[in-house]
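Amino Acid Chain and Its Fold in Token Form
===========================================
Scope: a single protein chain, as residues and as a discrete description of its fold.
Amino acid sequence: labelled as such and written in the usual single-letter residue code.
Position: the record begins directly beneath this header, with no further notes in between.
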Amino acid sequence: MSNTFDLHKILRPHILTLAPYSSARDEYTGHTGIFLDANENPYGSVTYADYNRYPDPHQAAIKDKLAPIKDVTVDRIFLGNGSDEPIDLLTRATCTPGTDRVIIMPPTYGMYEVSASIHDVIVDKVSLTADYQINVEAVLEVVTPQTKLIWVCSPNNPTGNVMQPEAIEALLNNFHGLVVVDEAYIDFTTVPSWTEHLAQYPNLVVLQTFSKAWGLAGLRIGMCFASPELIRILNKIKPPYNISLPAQRELMQGLNESGKKDEMVADILKEKAVLCNMLADLSLVIKVYPSDANFLLVQFDEAKAIMDYLISEAIIVRDRSRVHLCDGCLRITVGTQEENEAVIESLKKYKSKNVTA
């Protein structure tokens, strides 16, 4: 079934005619010359590095290097300050405050709702099913002419599972707004990325990140893949220099290390399997949910008390026990072998103390 998607119909009207800020580096893209255009300090910086010049506002060299890695064309790539920036920009570009709506499917990543709330956008919540899948019929029932975005997290945070592809396809085929598939944890699963379908679905947006598998969380660089038309809009409304020069340089080096990234992912997946088995053997644990991510959602008998005990042991996990459909659950990121063993030993100590008490 084809979807007659028209991006212009979901963008805020003033965005279409907005004149973007024109930075000095937009007017001249060369790398050599006498730069007297951006009011920079000509004598260098207070550090030994040459940070007195502004960075490339469009990160052209990075995109040229990234495009073949992701098997997309350069004009389908937007780079943001973490994935949170494209989340914010997509909301701002499409949703009129106080009028328009987005759909989220809890339990899911919290920034979708936070971004909408910041911009006074109405959030419609459609619960995932008991097995954490999309209820397509329920989602489409709440769509209104004011619904601009549907947020899909796959693999999902905090549950760790991949969403069924036929459900995402149904949303893409039957919704005339943007379907945003957040693939922050895509490197930890064998399912293909939805970037493979960008040409097929003009209303598809895919988010990914360098924070997880690549180990570059401190650089704060996220990826957004979409139609060239939408990418132009995001570039139009983003801050001019949204990714710093040190971050761009580090990422350029990091893109040479995809082999190391793959090794780290393999190690994490190996440790995840071991951790999963060790947790499942504990009587404290009710259930360890299947995971396609680098974390495990674990249901405990006494989640809050266990969380407090782990904190006292300087082991920090994430309490999800009050999140919709996650009663009694803690989210545990897969650590190193030593870190994972420390978690298990602390849980055994907790059990022992409570039994003797």
